[in-house]
Predict the 3D structure of the following.
Amino acid sequence: MIGAGLVSRAAAALVDIAVVASATALAGVVISGIRYTLEGPPFAFPALPGWAFGAGHSVLVVAYLTTGWALTGRTPGQLVLGLRVVTARGRPPKAGRAFVRALLCVVFPIGVLWTLVSRDTRAVHDVVAGTALVHDPPLREAVR
């Protein structure tokens, strides 16, 4: 399988950012709606300090990435781009390995630039977690 480069990783990340941002906005609307129903007007988003929003968002992103990689080896963005996270055996990572990879992606996002100098286009989080992001279109079997 061919390793995914920086451009395909970035395109998949843009789709994933849209999914997570939509989920965050939807959660804000639901929470605000519940508060409006219980307390009355005005309808307003919850006021959170910046650090709390940032921490909560980081936890959400780590959970989103870990779940996708541990269950199917891909996030929705990677599904759209035909990418999959695999271990050396070619299988999706188990939950622990997926969590380590996700945590490194969130804490050290600049590590993806390692793909520009890596022979096998692995990012820092791939090297540490023992994974690779490869091209693996979901319809590959249907085409044969």
